């Protein structure tokens, strides 16, 4: 797809991979809208990158999604690309985990992108060169037992992305998936022992993850698997 002169919305992009996507996509002459929840982080991003458009959004809250939609279709009627990037990861031990936190990752990482897609799809369907990209993870293909619900949420998002692609086959919207490997800004934080084990896994710089995403989008590669994620997908197919 053409990666110039688009209007791109990236959720959860006041830090990490989302912010790096925003910077690289802005450098390619796109209008970029980023969202966040934390006011201080949003203000500091706006200060550092005045050309970025920063809006509040909580993807677990339907009212917040609808109010963002109402504002964006007025402010950016040409919005043609949605990147569902917002996500969180928790270290969960089934023997001790509290019931209240068990659905957090499913709500943010899986229900969030589904609600965002359902809200923005009618608008995106009317645009040219349009696309939705869902950020899953290498862990979608090879579950990480220390973060079991994160793994489940990302596999769910992978499956949802495949169905969405099939249902929209006859439209002009392209449905992409980016499955990053562990990056140099890792999300996992668990016990000392778990952290030591995870620290042995190689890390890919987020700049490289995003460069791979951009090359993949330009080549219409619908499943983008940077670095280790390719291998995780192969191993995942043969595990019990
Ligand atoms: N880092 C890795 O190694 C890695 C590897 C594979 C996949 N990924 C995926 O890449 C994506 C970006 O992660 P990251 O590493 O860049 O992490 P990050 O820096 O922690 O960014 C996550 C973003 O998601 C936002 N977010 C969390 N809950 C939200 C909610 N309910 N509503 C709206 N926004 C919410 C956060 O916003 P606030 O700052 O406002 O909380 C933050 O901006 C995630 O989907 C993650 O699963 C990351």
Summarize the structure.
This protein has 240 residues and is an alpha/beta fold. The protein is 45% helix and 12% strand. Strands 3-2-1-4-5-6-7 form a 7-stranded parallel beta sheet, with helices on both faces.
Supply the CATH superfamily name.
NAD(P)-binding Rossmann-like Domain
Q: Strand content of the residues, in percent? A: 5-15%
CATH topology: Rossmann fold
CA radius of gyration: 17 Å
The total of helices stands at 8
Order of helices and strands: EHEHEHEHEHEHHEH
3D shape: globular
Hetero groups in this structure are: NADP nicotinamide-adenine-dinucleotide phosphate
Helix vs. strand class: alpha/beta
| Spatial strand order of the main sheet | 3-2-1-4-5-6-7
CATH class: Alpha Beta
Helix content: 40-55%
Task: Estimate nothing, just give the exact number of structural domains.
Answer: 1
Give the overall average pLDDT: 96
The end-to-end span amounts to 37 Å
Low-confidence spans: pLDDT under 50, at least 5 residues?
none
Largest sheet: 7 strands, parallel
CATH architecture, please? 3-Layer(aba) Sandwich
Q: What is the strand tally?
A: 7
Family: Belongs to the short-chain dehydrogenases/reductases (SDR) family.
Keywords: Oxidoreductase
InterPro entries: NAD(P)-bd_dom_sf (IPR036291), Sc_DH/Rdtase_CS (IPR020904), SDR_fam (IPR002347)
Protein name: SDR family NAD(P)-dependent oxidoreductase
């Amino acid at each position: 797809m053409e990666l110039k002169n688009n209007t791109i919305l990236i959720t959860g992009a006041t830090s990490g991979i989302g912010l790096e996507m925003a910077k690289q996509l802005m450098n390619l002459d796109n209008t970029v809208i980023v969202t966040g929840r934390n006011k201080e982080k949003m203000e500091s991003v706006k200060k550092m990158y005045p050309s970025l458009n920063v809006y509040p959004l909580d993807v677990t809250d339907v009212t917040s999604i609808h109010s963002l939609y109402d504002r964006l279709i007025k402010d950016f009627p040409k919005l043609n690309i949605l990147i569902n990037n917002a996500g969180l990861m928790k270290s969960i031990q089934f023997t001790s985990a509290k019931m209240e936190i068990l659905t957090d990752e499913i709500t943010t990482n899986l229900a969030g992108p589904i609600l965002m897609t359902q809200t923005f799809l009618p608008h995106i369907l009317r645009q040219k060169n349009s696309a939705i990209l869902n950020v899953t993870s290498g862990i979608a293909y090879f579950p990480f037992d220390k973060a079991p619900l994160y793994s489940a949420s990302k596999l769910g998002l992978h499956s949802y992305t495949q169905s969405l692609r099939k249902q929209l086959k006859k439209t002009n919207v392209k449905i992409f998936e980016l499955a990053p490997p562990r990056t140099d800004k890792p999300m996992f934080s668990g016990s000392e022992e778990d952290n030591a084990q995870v620290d042995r896994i190689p890390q890919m710089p987020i700049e490289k993850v995003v460069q791979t995403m951009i090359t993949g989008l330009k080549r219409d590669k619908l499943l983008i698997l940077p670095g280790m994620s390719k291998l995780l997908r192969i191993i995942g197919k043969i595990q019990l």
